[in-house]
Amino acid sequence: MAAQVGALREYDLKAAFIYNVVKYTDWPAESFQKADDPIVIGVLGNDPFGDVLDRIVKDRVIRGHRLVVRRASGVADLEGAHLVFISPSESEIALHCAAVEKFHAITIGDTPQSAPFTALNFAIESDRIVFSVDLNRVSRTRVSISSKLLHLAKAVVGTSKPSFQ
Hints:
By secondary structure, the protein is of the alpha/beta class.
């Protein structure tokens, strides 16, 4: 039972972090069909967040865009998403990440297997959640991540220099 509580707490914190990634990220105008379209947070595969992510984003608006969560079992259902969490249940991580990057979606993972393919990746070190950022992956999406967020990263890798806020 204690392990389940620990896992729940872990994904509560990751859900809060995902919300903060959205706060410190700007998507290109063409990522939205209309000026007031929502920012879509996608969860691909088995959802480890339960209703926590929904509660965190409920009634939130960032730069004129309300936030919504969309869960999907396939990439096609996430077209138009702005940020996509790739669940540990997914095995085709490289293919999934390449597909969602094409519609300017930031990818987030939380396994060693997802780290080479996602723009951001969570890890646990000394009972703390840390994250790394791959600037090459970010650059492919034409998304701008604030330097405020990058300063919190354990590691920032890649040579691309996207424009930061």
